[in-house]
Amino acid sequence: MTETDLPIFLTVTETAAVLRTTPKAVYAMIERGQLPGVVRIGRRVRVRTADLLHWLRQKSAPSPVEHRR
Question: What confidence score (pLDDT) does residue 22 get?
Fold first, then answer.
C-alpha cells in the first residue's frame, strides 16, 4: 500500500494497520496526545493521513547500513 492508495482520513482500525498495532493501542495514543492529526467528528475519530505519515517520517532513524554509506 502506498501513500496515494490511502484516503485523506484514516479510521482507528486503518491507523492501527498502518502502525501495525491494535485499535486499542491507537485509542491509548490518542488519549495521551501522542498521535498527530486526530480529528473528532461527533463520536467518530479520524486521523489525517498526511499528518500521520509526516510524523512517522520524523520518527524514523537511518538503518546502520544506510548510515555507513
Answer: 98
Tell me the pTM: 0.80
The reported pLDDT for the residue numbered 5 is 83
Question: Domain residues for 13?
Answer: 3-60
Taken in order 57, 30, 10, 16, is the CA torsion positive or negative?
Answer: positive
How many domains is the chain partitioned into structurally?
Answer: 1
Does any domain span residue 66? no
Angle formed at CA 34 by CA 17 and CA 23, multiple of 5 degrees: 30
Q: Which residues of 5-69 form beta strands (DSSP E)?
A: 9-10, 38-41, 44-48
How many other CB atoms sit within 10 Å of the CB of residue 30? Answer: 16
